[in-house]
Amino acid sequence: MLGALSGEAALLTSVGATFLVSVQPDALGLCLAAASLVAFVAWTEGGAGRLLLASTVLLALSAGVKPTNLALGLSQFILAYVSGRLRDGRLWLAWASVLGFVGVVLAWGAHVHDATGNTFGVISGGDSKFPTLARLTSPGQYLGLLRTGLVFGPGWLGAAALAWTLIRGPRSPVLLALLAGYVLTGLVAMRYASEAWLGSHYHALGMLVGAVSVGFTVSARPPRTVAAVVTLVALACLAQLAYGLHERPRRAAGWSDRELSLASALAPHLVQGDRLVFRAAVESQVPIWGGPNNFEDPRLFYLTRTTGWVLPSDRWSIPEVEAAWRLGARLYVDATGALGEHPEFLEWLLAHGERLATVDQGVIVRLRPPH
Questions:
Q1: pLDDT > 90 in the chain, percent
Q2: Cα(178)–Cα(33) distance, rounded to whole angstroms?
Q3: Second label for 106, Cα 20 to 30 Å away, from 133, 220, 241, 339?
Q4: Model confidence over 1-30: pLDDT tens digits?
Q5: For residues 21-41, average pLDDT
């Protein structure tokens, strides 16, 4: 019991506990993944079939929230192999069901993106979380992945417990399987996962690895040392939580100021049924990453309860905005602060509409209906 409590508390020693779950849905995804793993372990230890069913449903929901949590399937494969249940036909049917469910969710996400521009996704938005071959063969990329993972994944206490467990034992199959799933997540999503803050939320499974490592380490210690270890864990948790809560406002300052200001300024001008073109302050190409970038920023749509189209900050195409205008866009909102640097585009806007507001270098234009 003390090991379990220590492992749970150790989650708070990761910076990820106060940062990566702030906006992204990873908190829910992590909770579902942990519950799925618990049910699956119980099933591999001889539990009833309903445990496999519960694990399957929980994993499907977790991966529906965060598709990279499919990496937990590798953890399950390892545990099934070790327990001798890999040949159980029900297991393969369960895995196929999870993949089918997540495939439908992703396909629907792509459809929503095509219709509204209102979603991020691993198969929509012109973006890819996957690394290029050059990145996969770059030692610096792995160092970045390791550095980001230690901070936002297991945390310093979890990493120390993991190292101790791997070196001194006992090496639990559950921990090794979970670690394999976490490593797979980092490799698959390396493009983001190796970048601090930008991809910190991809290390959610790492938090679970750290917690399980601490739990096993505490459980394996002699009783007379357990009290001291638990006390240390509790103090570490309080210190990390206080630090995280103190740093959180400063770290997040300015990330959405312009979008929030534009949403507030836009609200009085909205008419029911308005659709808008939003030029996000995000480029469509990032040469350093070697590929396209997901510029479809949905925050303004969410804040104003509207739908529409998103344009990137590095593609000022008049035909592109004109096509959206003819399809029903009645507002143009610019969050780049660079509209004045594109006189031809600005001239088209003013010829087809009127400027309603300029807020924090952002611009709002009401477009007239086509004749």
A1: 30
A2: 11
A3: 133
A4: 444 445 555 565 666 666 665 656 788 888
A5: 83
The whole-angstrom separation of Cα 215 and Cα 357 is 56
Of how many residues is the chain composed? 371
pTM of the model: 0.76
Residue 321 Ramachandran class (φ > 0 left, ψ -120 to 50 alpha, else beta)? alpha
- Three-class DSSP labels, the chain: CHHHHHHHHHHHHCCHHHHCCCCCCHHHHHHHHHHHHHHHHHHHCCCCHHHHHHHHHHHHHHHHHCHHHHHHHHHHHHHHHHHCCCCCHHHHHHHHHHHHHHHHHHHHHHHHHHHHCCCCCCCCCCCCCCCCHHHHCCHHHHHHHHHHHHHHCCHHHHHHHHHHHHHHCCCCHHHHHHHHHHHHHHHHCHHHHCCCCCCHHHHHHHHHHHHHHHHHHHHHCCHHHHHHHHHHHHHHHHHHHHHHHHHHHHHHCCCCHHHHHHHHHHHHHCCCCCEEEEECCCCCEEHHHCEECCCCCCHHHHHHCCEEEEECCCCCCHHHHHHHHHCCEEEEEECCCCHHHCHHHHHHHHHHEEEEEEECCEEEEEECCCC
Nearest to 262 by CA among 134, 142, 118, 358: 358
Amino acid at 290: G
The predicted structure's pLDDT at residue 367: 92
The residue type found at 251 is R
For residues 320 and 129, give the distance between their C-alpha atoms in angstroms, rounded to a whole number. Answer: 26
Find the distance separating the first CA and the last CA of the chain, reported in whole Å.
72
Half-sphere exposure of 68 (CA within 13 A, CB side): 26
